[in-house]
Amino acid sequence: MSDINHSSQQKRLKKRVFKKIDNDEWSIEELAQSIINGDRKALASGITLVESRANKHRKKAAQLIQLLLPNTGKSIRIGITGVPGAGKSTWIEAFGKKLVQEDHKIAVLAIDPSSSLSGGSILGDKTRMEELSHHQNVFIRPSPTAGTLGGVHRMTRETILLCEAASYDIILVETVGVGQSEVMVRGMVDFFLLLALTGGGDELQGMKKGIMELVDAIVINKADGDNKVRATKARNEYRQLLHYLQPATKGWQTKAITCSAIKGEGIVEIWELIERFIEEISESGVMEDRRKSQSLDWMKQMIHDRLFDEFMNIDGRKEELRRLKEGVIVGEVSPAEAVETLFTP
Amino acid sequence: MSDINHSSQQKRLKKRVFKKIDNDEWSIEELAQSIINGDRKALASGITLVESRANKHRKKAAQLIQLLLPNTGKSIRIGITGVPGAGKSTWIEAFGKKLVQEDHKIAVLAIDPSSSLSGGSILGDKTRMEELSHHQNVFIRPSPTAGTLGGVHRMTRETILLCEAASYDIILVETVGVGQSEVMVRGMVDFFLLLALTGGGDELQGMKKGIMELVDAIVINKADGDNKVRATKARNEYRQLLHYLQPATKGWQTKAITCSAIKGEGIVEIWELIERFIEEISESGVMEDRRKSQSLDWMKQMIHDRLFDEFMNIDGRKEELRRLKEGVIVGEVSPAEAVETLFTP
């Protein structure tokens, strides 16, 4: 199945879902119940609904989430980031297989269009997580392709809730770290993991600004064969560095460890580490505090986005803003004056 | 003069300024011209105007800034941060004295109410920057005390422009690093300097998250007497650490250096460093790019703040938001549903 076929198939599915929902053939209550019952098609349709940017769908999406709310919040939410080439797909495949062996139901989501999940290949015959994607207890959903990163962020947060309502008890959120995406992922997960490259100082230097202070563990992948010595060296360098940096989670010293996803080595240890993390922060109350403040931050963000969307929706506003921005750039208009102009009827 | 007297004196001054402006006895054009002419009282009054939170003053403040705009942008804007006890006041005193000796006109502003400039002591008889504050080419303004940090941020940005119009060619913006204040300072200065404590690993560990990746230089103060060896050791540790972190400014490796403000040692070197920095980033175009994107970010921030202010200004909105937040915290209402409720008339 080619990417193009996959994409047009997606579009047809979307059309069918929206037709049913818009004509009230499929009530939101029914949809919610089917999701709770574990119907994968219903889950996929629900996600399609929350990904819609149409005004009429937003209300229904909120209604759906509200109905599912009592069934949410019980999963472990894990974020995974790492540059392309760090081996994220292979790592998620190895990690996911370990989890399904232990009877977990896992959902894999992506937060940006350029993640390893995206581009349609995931459902094609050459998927990068082949074994995992065929497992009945695994649900894989690539990133929504439409909209800004902020919009993708909102959709992914809501998709997490839908997956939880469908009894997925471990949610993996993947990002390659475009723009502010790591900050967004940090704002929606319990445990955040950086998959790093092996190697010396130069590779550490290439790391994104502030990323080490956002994550709970740095996992140096590909610690196998000739690479093992370098990986261990890198791990020690990270440990030394982490000693000086503030941890992302109160009461938890960020860890640096090695693993080999391809050989399946160190995967069990990472899962044990995450379980210990969840236990510790649940006991200390940090987990509850984090989830609460994540919800409030999310709410605040949505209010700001909505206000800005409505403001920009006025006829001629975009053109006016563009013109004023140009004035600000060339130094003819002060930002204060530009804002006054925008707000003067 | 006690703090209380100072404060009531400030209030009287404010009242007088507003009376004149509100009654159009003092036109914005006259005020602008007096600021450009270097009239210190006019400058102080102009700052009082931009610090006002009244709606009627916002329009006039924007008008004032617009009039001054052609005379702005020509200073070097330097941010200074450091925990209380790092010796910021002494350092600014030493640095400022060096600059006025070279015939610079300097303005010292603070971004948060708890900075060393604040609390009224600055204009009292026991000021911490005694010599500096009496110099004719120095203008010191404590932080505006009213409003949120975001509001203080806006006011400080506009105050920078007013000082530039009054021919101050070096602007120092001080913060003790409350909340997001360092990010705000980074967004309004060209060069950002962290004044750090001497000492070993433990003190480095106490450093605020991400701060090292925001600054262009880490200055270890109090490198004198018994402390000199420890300061040098700390500097070397910082250098090692900085090697792994991404620099705040493209093309400029963040520096770590020692100085002794109290003995006046290393102050000249810091000024030379800043001059070199400005020269290099001006040539590379990074300076222009930074200033442009700072203005656009500022404009965007103001639009968002304004929209949120207007939204919250509706009768009963605050109470409604508080109630919805509680619902979100206890898990009864989803953030999405809460936002829908807020936006449903």
UniProtKB/TrEMBL annotation, chains A, B:
Taxonomically, the superkingdom here is: Bacteria
Q: Which UniProt keywords apply?
A: Hydrolase
Q: What is its EC number?
A: 3.6.5.-
Q: Which Pfam families match?
A: MeaB
Q: Does the keyword Hydrolase apply?
A: yes
Q: Which GO molecular function, any one, fits this protein according to its record?
A: hydrolase activity
Return the similarity comment.
Belongs to the SIMIBI class G3E GTPase family. ArgK/MeaB subfamily.
Q: Tell me what this protein is called.
A: Methylmalonyl Co-A mutase-associated GTPase MeaB
Recorded name of the encoding gene: meaB
